[in-house]
Amino acid sequence: MSAALLAIRGLRVSYRGSLGVLHAVDGVDVDLEPGEFLGVVGESGSGKSQLLLAILGLNAPGARIAGSIRYRGEELVGAGERALGRLRGARIAMIFQDPMTALNPYLTIGTQLTETMRHHQGASRAAARRRALELLAAVHIPEPERRFAQHPHELSGGMRQRVVIAMALSCDVDILLADEPTTALDVTVQAQILALLRELRTQTRAAIVLVTHDLGVIAEVADRVLVMYAGRVVEQARVQQLFDSARHPYTEALRRSIVPLTGPLPARLPTIGGQPPNPAALPPGCAFAPRCAYAFDTCATAPPPLTQAGPDHLRACYHTGPLGRIR
Amino acid sequence: MARSAGAAAVVNAAIIDRPVRIAGQWRQSWARLRRHPPALVALALLGLIVLLALLVPLVSPYDYATPDWDELYQPPGYAHWLGTDGLGRDLLVRVMWGCRISLLVGIAASLVSVLIGVLWGATAGYAGGITDSAMMRIVDILYTVPFIPLVIVLTVLFGRSFLLVFVAIGAVSWLDIARIVRGQTLSLKQREFIDAARALGLSNTTMIVRHIVPNLLGIVIIYATLTVPTVILFEAFLSFLGLGVHAPLASLGTLISDGAKHMKSHPYLLTIPAVFLTLIVCSFSYLGDGLRDALDPRQRR
User: Fold this and answer.
1) Comparing C-alpha atoms, which of A202, A184, A192 is closest to residue A95?
2) Residue A106 is nearest to which of B20, B192, B215, comparing CB atoms?
3) How many cross-chain Cβ pairs, A to B, lie less than 8 Å apart?
4) Which of A31, A169, B26, B284 sits at a 20 to 30 Å CA gap from A287?
5) What pLDDT does A61 receive?
């Protein structure tokens, strides 16, 4: 446990709104090992992005963050802007969802790429430029010299996301946080970006945390998966286990809502009925219970704790029997 | 990483068989400005006026201050190309001196107010919270200070000087810019690239100077070019009250107010400086328009 690169314990992120206190992240424990590829899935509002932002202390103003996030033993919750500023971009970098808006439209690609290196490493202009051209080549951008001098609007969406990834990697980071990096891109480009992430992972020693609502993406790249629902972790397993034998009804339902590639197509793809719960008024018991096909009396009493369901496999559910095709 | 970089470099070498032309940001901007005829004309006109204002007083046999009692109210002619005024002074030389003064006051005071306004507004907007409130309340308070008494107080404190005109005008005209810039900054702060830059660990100063301010260029340039003519008129107003430029030195504003007194008998005393003022003011407007387009890298060529 202590060897973890990043250890998150009892993390809570809450906002005080007009509807009362809203728990975006409600008690999450995770460890990230060096070089690991961790996928985080969940639907909108499940707290997955807030979890990522909390690591770098970038949540919207007004967020209350409790619990503990330790990076190589250093506590990040409550750390000052100065301390966080030394980590951001230098040790832990973040890739944002929309490459169309994540680059400053007024600065050239080169300026934005070299900025981080000059700031964190005090690199000379020439050295930073050389490294930036290398990075552009590493993320497979053709004609790096020409792209270096161009502005973001002269690049396609996929290329911009490659630039954003190059920026994030520029300082040899330990951890790369990616917040839905493929959501804003079309499907073929998505595949290319995922392939790039996988490739970069074998070349750098950075651990990657990929947040997405797309199980297909996770299946393709992640080692380990965290399934989040209403701010809590409901299941955590190695990717193979999760797809072969999901132990939480929510994961199972998600898995079944994927279009099968083989076998007969169902007349109607199964969906999860109902709505995600209101984060300001969570039910006292399991947050998924109102939509769950397996729910019974106990589910309404208290949130189920995360329990061992196999080697490297945790899940939070009272239902102990098999998850069959009961519908 | 090195291996794939090498591979990509090979690919690139194949793609690029000619040297890559890397146009600098300024050269690109200049190229875009050249495609904007009104701005080009305005730039040429301003250049011409500046050149004339600098050269004519050096070359001309006449002086802006010395009266010539034999040449009162001469209409434009061979000896005096633009005529003479009520004291027989050459109007061409006086108008050129007026252009010097007006342009100097206009540009210098605008630069000062833009500089203060942008930094103040961007800092307030970026910092937000209590800092923002405090800084903007200071702006509100300064808004309530009446301008003319302020200038009179300054005159009493520091004596009459040309510098004072800059200070006085600069002190009041940055308030508008600060408010506009703060508003823009507040909306810029919501954009994702600002979050992205923060996630890269850049310092606040870097964030403001490199990420916020360049995105404000468009609005700042428009406002600055609108400020120049306003300031020129402001200066004319101050001079009229005896707080600005003093006789025998003249700005375009004082020349126009002098000329207006004789507009029935000697209309050229009014029209000639008025034409120069109009040309300067219009040129700045068109130039600002062109610059805004030229400095925005998103504009296609």
Assistant:
1) A184
2) B215
3) 120
4) A31
5) 82
- Chain B contacts in chain A segment 74-103 (CB below 8 A): 84-90, 93-94, 96-98, 101-103
CB contact under 8 A, A153 and B297: yes
**Cα atoms in the 13 Å half-sphere on the side-chain side of B300:** 2
Query: For residue B186, what pLDDT band results from cuts at 50, 70 and 90?
Result: very high
Q: Does B246 score more than 80 pLDDT?
A: no
Q: Closest residue of A to B8, CA-based?
A: A137
Q: 10 Å Cβ neighbour count for B19?
A: 7
A195 touches chain B (CB under 8 A): no
Give the alpha-carbon dihedral of B162, B167, B173, B179, to 10 degrees: 160
* Closest residue on chain A to B20 (Cα): A146
pTM for this entry = 0.75
**pLDDT given for residue B301 in this prediction:** 43
- Compute the distance between CA of residue A52 and CA of residue A208 in angstroms, rounded to an integer: 11
DSSP at B208? I
Neighbours of A269 (CB within 10 A): 11
Task: Encode A150-188: b = buried (16+ Cβ within 10 Å), e = exposed.
Answer: bbbebbeebbbbbbbbbbbbbbebbbbbbbbbbebbeee
Interface of A with B in 208-267 (CB under 8 A): none
3-class DSSP state of A207:
strand
Residue B128 CB neighbours (<10 A): 14
Supply the DSSP string of B23-58, one letter for each residue: --HHHHHHHHHHT-HHHHHHHHHHHHHHHHHHHHHH
- Tens-place pLDDT, residues B124-164: 999 888 999 999 999 999 888 887 787 778 777 776 666 67
Helix (H) or strand (E) segment spanning residue A326: none
Q: What local confidence, expressed as pLDDT, does residue A217 receive? A: 84
